[in-house]
């Protein structure tokens, strides 16, 4: 069984195992730093500041 690498979208920072982002369709990268889990994007000040409008895992910095 092969283990998939976790990747982050270069555009919206969404963390996924896919080669392209399921949210925006942009290319993903294996090089990212830190991550944030957004449970309620409507009440989260950090999600608002980062421009996140969907709950999920997000990278803090993507290369």
**Alpha-beta classification:** mainly beta
Choose one word for the global shape. Answer: elongated
Number of strands: 5
Radius of gyration of CA atoms, rounded to a whole number: 12 Å
CATH class: Mainly Beta
**Main pleated-sheet profile:** 3 strands, antiparallel
CATH topology: Rubrerythrin, domain 2
State the oligomer: single chain
Order of helices and strands: EEEEHE
Name the poorly predicted regions.
none
Number of domains: 1
> Beta fraction of the residues?
25-35%
Helix content: under 10%
Let me know the average pLDDT.
Answer: 95
Number of helices: 1
Strand line-up of the largest beta sheet: 2-1-3
Based on the coordinates given, report the CATH architecture: Single Sheet
Distance between the termini: 28 Å
Fill in the keyword field for this structure:
63 residues, elongated, mainly beta, three-stranded antiparallel β-sheet, Rubrerythrin, domain 2, 1 helix
Task: Please characterize this protein's 3D structure.
The chain has one domain: Rubrerythrin, domain 2 (Single Sheet). With 63 residues, the protein is mainly β. The radius of gyration is 12 Å and the shape is elongated. The strands form two sheets. Strands 2-1-3 form a three-stranded antiparallel beta sheet, with no helix packed on it. Strands 4-5 form a two-stranded antiparallel sheet. 10% of the residues lie in helices and 33% in strands. It has one helix and five strands; from the N terminus they run E-E-E-E-H-E. The model has no long low-confidence stretch (mean pLDDT 95).
């Amino acid at each position: 069984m092969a283990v998939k690498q976790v990747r982050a979208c270069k555009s919206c920072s969404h963390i996924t195992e896919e080669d392209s982002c399921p949210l925006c369709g942009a290319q993903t990268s294996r090089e990212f730093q830190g991550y944030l889990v957004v449970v309620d994007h409507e009440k989260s000040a950090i999600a608002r500041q980062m421009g996140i409008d969907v709950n999920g895992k997000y990278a803090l910095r993507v290369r």
